Amino acid sequence: MAIQSLAVFCGSKNGTNPVFGQHASQLGKLMAENNIRLIYGGGSAGIMGNIADNVMQHGGKVTGIIPKLLLEWEVQHRGITELIICDDMHERKKKLYSLCDAALILPGGFGTLDELFEIVTWNQLTIHDKEIYILNSGGFYNHLIKHIEIMKAEQFLYEEAIKRITIIDDPSELTRYL
Fold first, then answer.
1. Where are the domains of the chain?
2. Considering Cα of 135, then 132, then 105, then 39, what sign does the dihedral take?
3. What's the rounded mean pLDDT across residues 58-85?
4. Are 58 and 26 in contact (CB under 8 A)?
5. Which residues touch 19 (CB under 8 Å, ≥6 apart)?
């Protein structure tokens, strides 16, 4: 099935490695050029805002989903196609997952990891069967990938869920899966 909408989970900060921002910009352009709607957290800051800005600058469509609690904290994006305001974080994540065909994880903090592990867990529980991509920009997720390999070797993971995770090192690699 072709990807028409992609949930992107990433930081509301920029991080220190310039490749994070470069990859976010490339990804935004690539999504717009391939008519893939960005589904994301609705913020205007950090990598999150960078991707949204680039999708919009290149004529794409963006749906942001933000809980009331974070309206002031994350500074909602005012220049996107659609902004959905929900009651809480749980509703936000459920809406993000329901609106996307696949998910892509970029560098980020605890919230990004929470979203990654929840969507993988939902795959494992057959709540959905979405493909999950991890953009390992500048090796950001090397240790996490190694830990996942250890969990697999120790037989703590279900093979079906692991098969849905694809690691890529550059946004251009995503075009193979579109």
1. 5-177
2. positive
3. 90
4. no
5. 137, 138
